[in-house]
Amino acid sequence: MTAFQVHSHNLRGSIKASTLDWIVNTIGNKQCECTAILLQDIGRTDPEGPSILRNHKGLEGHTIYANSSMNNKSKSVVIIVHKNWQVHKVLRDKSGSLVGVVASRGSLEILVSAYLPTNLDLCGCPLEWDLQKPS
Q1: Is 18 helix (H, G, I), strand (E, B) or coil?
Q2: Centroid of chain to Cα 123
Q3: What span, in angstroms and rounded, lies between the C-alpha atoms of 69 and 94?
Q4: In the chain, domain spans
Q5: How far is CA 35 from the centre of its chain?
């Protein structure tokens, strides 16, 4: 049986050294293989993703796909797919806020997407998540 694990992180406009270390350590963790890392609000980028990711030795062999808006640098998303998965199709929305990939490993085929909703910064996030509290 093939399993998959995905991590998501909002970068708030830039890739810091500590975040880059986290990305490399997470995707390279041999005890808990990560299928994909989804990044939001990475700043301006081209379809192959930021050069800091493309050129990092710790990410060699893994594939990087990005989407961004020419009008809004915050509307940018990236998917880093582990090298053990084969990517068959890449999907990008015209808004720049969505990128998806169809990937497979063995007999399992999945669609993984990174999405950045508009005005996400206005929502915030709870310090403690409790499904019993609707607020």
Answers
A1: helix
A2: 20
A3: 8
A4: 6-122
A5: 10
| Two structure tokens written together for 27 | 């995707």
Can you read off the two tokens belonging to residue 109? 């085929």
User: Both tokens of residue 42?
Assistant: 């990475």
**Rounded distance between C-alpha atoms, residue 105 and residue 84, angstroms:** 7
User: Closest Cα to residue 75, out of 102, 93, 53, 55?
Assistant: 93
Structure tokens that stand for 113 in this block: 């997407």
Strands 76-81 and 108-115: unpaired
CB contact at 8 A, 98 and 77: yes
Per-residue pLDDT of the chain (135 residues; tens, 9 = 90+): 567 788 888 888 888 888 999 999 999 998 888 899 999 988 888 888 899 999 999 999 999 999 998 888 778 899 999 999 999 999 999 888 899 999 999 889 999 998 876 555 555 555 565 667 766
Half-sphere exposure of 9 (CA within 13 A, CB side): 17
Was domain 6-122 assigned CATH 3.60.10.10? yes
Cα separation, 132 vs 112, in Å, equals 28
